[in-house]
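Let us practice reading a record.
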Amino acid sequence: MTVVIYHNPDCGTSRNTLAMIRQGGEEPEIIDYLRTPPSRERLMWLIEQAGLTVREALRQKDTPYDALGLRDLSLSDETLLDAMLAHPILINRPFVVTNQGVRLCRPSELVLDILVGPAIGPFIKEDGEVVIDPEGKRLR
């Protein structure tokens, strides 16, 4: 299986998602989307495949969201996509692509829904939250 993660190494959610993928035995293709943003077509494909609207894929926190006036609900998807491509930090993360589908992994444990293979075993997020307990039971 090929796994691709659109990753921001400065984001705890993205790091937790990457750690779960690796703990599951996969070494994903890692795309640092801030340095190498997806094309407009690829971004739209990721959003559609994840079952999201463009607005749902737009990150607000710690971005120029307000400064760019993106809170305006009358803005078109095309305008929002233009902003995301001009300012990749506006792309919510991490998007993960596997043979089982595409997810915006917020929270990070959503990645477990699209990983194939053996259970990843116990997993605790960076902040100490238990996702999978020592018996292998998914708690979130």
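A brief commentary: The radius of gyration is 16 Å.
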